[in-house]
Design goal:
- The chain is of the alpha+beta class and 132 residues long.
- The chain has one domain (2-130): Hotdog Thioesterase (Thiol Ester Dehydrase, Chain A, Roll).
- The protein is built from three helices and seven strands; from the N terminus they run βααββββββα.
- A hairpin with a 5-residue loop joins strand 5 (85-94) and strand 6 (100-112).
- The longest helix has 16 residues, at 24-39.
- The chain starts with a strand and ends with a helix.
Length: 132
């Protein structure tokens, strides 16, 4: 399953070198992840309704090319099948040229909201929605 969002780089995301500050890509990935989870019928409110939270426990990012003010990006997120956490891979690329800007992946542990314990296997209802 995959989803993507378009982002036009805003001025306030730039660093003193006039390129996107590296930490701002994380919020771009978050937008793509939200679109992906919504597509799966598993947005954050639905997760909470089901009694689960999915905090990020690991993230890695590879920066390939800088992006600048006004540049249009396509940021995609896709679920990598696994048994005990959400594993999502991301790719940000220039919308016009397709040139890769950066890639990343996150691992998110399933946690029971009620008793604040980690679930070492994804609940069946979660697997059902993300493994379509």
């Amino acid at each position: 399953m995959e989803a993507s969002v378009k982002i036009k780089v805003p001025f306030y995301d730039l660093d003193p070198m006039k390129v996107v500050w590296h930490g701002n890509y994380i919020k771009y990935f978050e937008k793509a992840r939200c679109a992906l989870l919504e597509k799966a019928g598993l947005d954050y409110r639905e997760m909470e309704r089901l009694g689960y939270a999915f905090p990020v426990v690991k993230m890695s990012v590879k920066y390939i090319n800088p992006s600048e003010f006004g540049q249009e990006l396509e940021v995609s997120a896709r679920i990598v099948p696994c048994e005990n956490f959400l594993h999502i891979k991301y790719l940000a690329k220039d919308l016009k040229s397709g040139e890769k800007i950066c890639s990343a992946e996150t691992k998110q542990m399933c946690v029971s909201i009620e008793n604040k314990t980690s679930c070492f296997e994804l609940p069946a209802i979660i697997k059902e929605r993300i493994c379509r």
